[in-house]
Amino acid sequence: MSGIPVASPVYTLGDWQGNVVDEYGCVWVVETEEGWSGGPPVAAVVEDREAGDGAWTAPGSFKARVITLSGQCLAPSQTAMVAAKDRFAAAGDPYDLQDLVVEELHLTRKAAVRLTDRPDPTDKGSRAFTWTMTLTAGDPRRYAVEPTIVTTGLPASTAGRTFPRTYPRSYPQVSGSPGRVTVVQEGTYQMCPAVITIRGPVIAPEVVHVQSGRRLGFGLTIGWDEELIIDLGAGTALLNGSTSRVGDMAPGAAWFLLAPGINSLRFRGRPGTVPAGMEPPPLASMEVVAYSAWV
């Protein structure tokens, strides 16, 4: 159950929320925040020059994002305060990733986090306590809550067709012109992952990132009832979600990530075959699922 906001931003981690009055009448106020509103730490590559002034620098990288929230909780009774402490202690999880959702005045974004330090509540009288929560996002990006989803078919085989169809599988609604889609990244992160799903029948499928010129092709045939799931961030390509086909990458194939702004992707390949008598025949398609991401 969502609480009633008392300040901005509102933080949500599982059933716990900060800067709200929760369903039990407890007021959770976030007084300090570190690690969310600014950029993540940087792993810099800097080496002093042996002769002369200055240093040699090389491209660095962003490190994990560590987020520390602290504040106070005021409960309507001592019993409610004790129960609130129990709920707070159970909010974070060191085992599994959870989404920390931050609803700010201009954007609502999320990060996948784990609890990396013990929750630390300290009593302040009979109805209040202070608290601290430390979370770590291994992926330092702050993502949009809702994804961008676009689909297209092969340029030579999808004109005049309308998705979805069932054969007996469901195919997504095609968006954009056949063989090409545009993904707009509204964030500021220079390298944004995406998941591309290619559904057969298609021979030697290829995805081209127009802006970078990189091509990601595979020397394989995807059957009419199969799909190849390509995770650009993880660098994996799984046939039907289980069998790795990275080894089938075509010569010259190169991984790519999405950049801020407009990303044009082209879908190429040769139409595959379908069982005789199947009308209308299923058509190959490419679906792209991406989340805008911020530093």
UniProtKB/TrEMBL annotation:
<feature type="domain" description="Siphovirus-type tail component C-terminal">
    <location>
        <begin position="186"/>
        <end position="267"/>
    </location>
</feature>
<protein>
    <recommendedName>
        <fullName>Siphovirus-type tail component C-terminal domain-containing protein</fullName>
    </recommendedName>
</protein>
<dbReference type="InterPro" id="IPR054738">
    <property type="entry name" value="Siphovirus-type_tail_C"/>
</dbReference>
<dbReference type="Pfam" id="PF22768">
    <property type="entry name" value="SPP1_Dit"/>
</dbReference>
